[in-house]
Amino acid sequence: MSRSESPVVHAKVSAMYGKRLKSGDYAELLGKSSPEEVAAALKEHPAYGQVLADVDAALVHREHLEAILRKKYFLDFLKLVHYLGKENRAFLMILIERYEIEEILWCIARLHDLSPEQAGFIDYKYEYIDRYSRLDFEKLSVLKSETELIEALAGTPYGRILASLPDKTGRISYPVAEHSLHAYYFKALFARIKKRYGSKKAPQIEKTIGIEVDTLNVLLIYRLRILFGLPEEETREYLFDTAYRLKPDMTASLLRAQTEQAFIEALKATPYRFIADGANGTTFQTAVRAYADRSARRVIHFSRHPVALILAYLVLRDTEHDNLKTIIEGCRYRAPREQIIPHLIGAE
């Protein structure tokens, strides 16, 4: 057996993957009429029982439930990292930065919407994340301005990034912050891959991360250029520099598209051409995300590389949590289930 393989990690990932939400679970959740009912149903599911054990489902609100899902993501990550060797574990700790970024973005979103529903920021994480994170989440939870946020993040890469983003009024655009922080993360992640694996490359790891970056860029171009009509050069500023199979000329062709049909034709000339078959509107966006989901499932079924397996599992965990947030939003706005189902990914 190759030193890069780990049957133990594969067995653990497979077991956790086996507890995922399946079609019957989604059907049950789609029948709920409130976030509280969704939380009560999840509390009975083996994958979510632990993280919801001390939560009163009758009192949980949408933001609180989404925060608990982030805790679930982090707990799963810690369980899997435990089975890695020292070097692989050190490599994967960069995922803590991704977790930190999501919480910083939550802070920025909260600064734009100080509704009571945003309460409960810090009540779920400290016994877990304080061991690993450099951030003071308790301090972040009570910020009242972007200036205070930047000051709280002083001495971190995030603080340096955000310090350059406020407009003339001192506000930070959420989309700009999201792009800037994620661009930093992906750049750091690929640098970590190169440092850790060097000339050995790491095709399974690069593929999992690379597909995520490529599909994010495809979606960004589609949304900004086609749905919102942003000019080509402005759209380019929002793209991630790192790429996997989406070469510069392919990206340029997608950026030149001014209509949905032209975009679809340009996409057909890329390795992601099959996504374009019959896709349009929301269906197209769902198809792009579904591709990343299917790719991650293939890694879990066929790979034995421990880091690739964990990265793939976390992609699927993200997808499942996005599905749950879609269902929660559907409950909130009383959307018919037939309107929600097309937005769910891999809910077989």
Topology record:
Layout: H1 7-18, H2 23-30, H3 35-43, H4 62-81, H5 86-92, H6 95-112, H7 126-129, H8 137-140, H9 146-152, H10 157-162, H11 174-197, H12 203-227, H13 232-236, H14 248-256, H15 260-267, H16 281-302, H17 306-332, H18 337-340
Question: What keyword list fits this structure?
Answer:
348 residues, V-type ATP synthase subunit C fold, 3 domains, 63% helix, mainly alpha, 18 helices, Topoisomerase I, Chain A, domain 4
Q: Could you describe the 3D structure shown?
A:
This protein starts with 6 loop residues before the first helix and ends in an 8-residue tail after the last helix. It has three domains: 1-93 and 306-340, ATP synthase (C/AC39) subunit, domain 3 (Topoisomerase I, Chain A, domain 4, Orthogonal Bundle), CATH 1.10.132.50; 95-180, no CATH class; 203-304, V-type ATP synthase subunit C fold, CATH 1.20.1690. It is 63% helix and 0% strand. It has helices at residues 7-18, 23-30, 35-43, 62-81, 86-92, 95-112, 126-129, 137-140, 146-152, 157-162, 174-197, 203-227, 232-236, 248-256, 260-267, 281-302, 306-332, 337-340. The protein is globular, with a radius of gyration of 20 Å. The model is unreliable at 114-124 (pLDDT under 50). Helix 6 (95-112) runs antiparallel to helix 11, helix 12 packs parallel to helix 17 and helix 16 (281-302) runs antiparallel to helix 17 (306-332). The chain is mostly helical and 348 residues long.
